[in-house]
Specification:
Blueprint: E1 2-6, H1 11-23, E2 27-35, H2 41-57, E3 62-70, E4 77-79, E5 87-89, H3 94-107, E6 111-114, H4 126-129, H5 131-138, E7 143-146, H6 164-176, H7 182-188, H8 191-196, H9 215-225, H10 231-242, H11 258-270
Helix pairs in contact: 7-10, 9-11, 10-11
Length: 272
Amino acid sequence: MRILIPFSGGINSTYALWRYLAETDHEIHSYRHIESFEAQDRKRTAALAMVDWLKTNVRDFTFWEETGTLPDGAEQLEPVRIGFTQTWDVGRIIPRWEKQEQVLDSVQPDAVVRGYSQEQWTFDLLPVRLTDVRKRLFDRDVSVYCAGHPTLETAIDFMNPLDPATWMTEVWRPLGEIITGRFEQLEALPQALQDLREKECDEYHPPDVNGRRCRECLYEDFLERRTDLTGRQKDQELARLAQYDSNFATADPETYAPVVAISAALIELNDY
């Protein structure tokens, strides 16, 4: 089986690539592209070092880098969840999906692995809610697996039910209750891969400066400060306070904003 795995060097895609290399004998194809908001040289260097480690210590696979930097997408605001008031600019990642479509057409895989983890359930999945994107990414004879799923080859049907709201209720939210989170996935990686990981921010941002919070630095603080919790326990506590996976119904449709909710939860859990 030919499997395509988009790879950035972040926790979720690294876990996806490592797991399918280590636990299957499938023909793995993986690629990396650069987005304008993730264009640091240090991240590319770390990602390529991870690829080299995996090829040397696990097994060989096909890997390539797409040339150039993806363009910035035009602003397109969408509700964070169906029926919610707060919005998020999905336009910034539409070029990512357009690139994925091109690679799917080129590689013609039997399956694609998406590096999902629990905190992505703060949103109702955006590409399923956008009819054109959904059709181009998922309406094809390609199985879709989620790396954080307990089993490697449980295909997720992203086209049915056709109604997005019904799909969220019947497919997306139940899936969020069994998927692993970023900290459990990080903890599962070999230590050598963990050591190669680059932090998201170029410099450390204090927890709360004039009301502004950096979620990525708060994640790093959580990892370093709460060594009393396992990776799974970190993910569970974060989901409870930030109101996702099995806790999604506690979110206020008028005020809920995923990044704000996660940041507030991390402030509380880090106990500064």
